[in-house]
Design brief:
By secondary structure, this protein is mainly α. 81% of the residues lie in helices and 0% in strands. It has one domain. Helix 2 runs antiparallel to helix 3.
């Protein structure tokens, strides 16, 4: 398994194991059950709305998907490293021709595959609910769902990084804190422009540039009101996600390398 495809084969093997372990995790299935409940509730609410049922469908369904993807990405990412440390399997894996960063990459690839599958299943359920309620589908809806999956992948990478040096509970709290602030990063710039103190303005601007701008991944309004898609914004969001993931994975690998495992 390790020698046939070189170092890349090792990463793929770890990703496959991580993927199978995630399927045995009840969190994956619980998130789908929660999504089913929320989407069913969305269907009922759309029937109660005399006007604008399409907007209710899209808004609530995207909100339900976002909630589930954020929960799965954060909780799974925060615990994946600690599980290996508790079972002492890191030492066995590192006895192979594999670096700490390569090991982290393999675990992350498994997480990303789970999130992509989760997002695909949620998207299929969402599409079925909207069509059953007589709604319409558009490119904005699929773009919004894709960005939510990409956001969840970023959160998984961040949680994995925090989980490399803290407990799963703290890693989840750190990640959710960054997510909440990053989802309102535009408000930080707004407040900085109107701050009366130069020191306060400097702190707010520093926070604006330091915190990942998760609001770039949230285009629910575009999907709800069928606004025009701005493709440069989508490309920039993908670039930001790639940079963020690379930094988190390399950072997690360096942290684990410096720790006494």
């Amino acid at each position: 398994m390790w020698t046939s495809a070189g170092w890349w084969g090792a990463e793929r093997a770890i990703a496959g194991v991580s993927l199978r372990e995630s399927f045995r995790d009840r969190l994956f299935y619980n998130s789908l059950l929660v999504a089913l409940f929320l989407l069913a509730l969305t269907y009922l609410l759309s029937n109660l709305s005399a006007t604008g049922y399409q907007r209710v469908l899209v808004s609530f369904s995207l909100g339900a998907n976002q909630f589930c993807l954020v929960a799965v990405g954060t909780l799974m990412g925060a615990s994946v490293i600690q599980k290996e440390l508790q079972r002492r399997t890191f030492l066995l894996l590192l006895s192979r021709p594999l670096t700490h960063t390569g090991l982290v990459l393999g675990k992350f690839m498994g997480l990303a595959a789970v999130l992509l599958l989760n997002g695909l299943l949620l998207g299929i359920i969402q599409t079925a609910v909207i069509l059953a309620a007589g709604g319409e589908l558009g490119a904005q809806l699929f773009a919004a769902q894709g960005l939510l999956v990409l956001q969840a992948v970023c959160l998984a990478a961040i949680a994995l990084f925090f989980g490399s040096f803290s407990t799963p509970a703290l890693a989840s709290l750190y990640t959710l804190g960054l997510y909440i602030v990053g989802s309102a990063s535009g408000q930080l710039e707004f407040l900085a422009e109107r701050a009366k103190s130069e020191g306060v303005a400097w702190v707010l601007r520093a926070a604006y540039w330091a915190v990942p701008a998760f609001e770039r991944f949230q285009i629910t309004d575009v999907a709800v009101y069928s606004l025009e898609l701005h493709w440069p914004q989508l490309v920039w969001a993908a670039v930001q996600a790639a940079v963020l993931v690379v930094l988190c994975l390399v950072g997690a690998g360096r942290v684990l390398e410096s720790r006494e495992l």
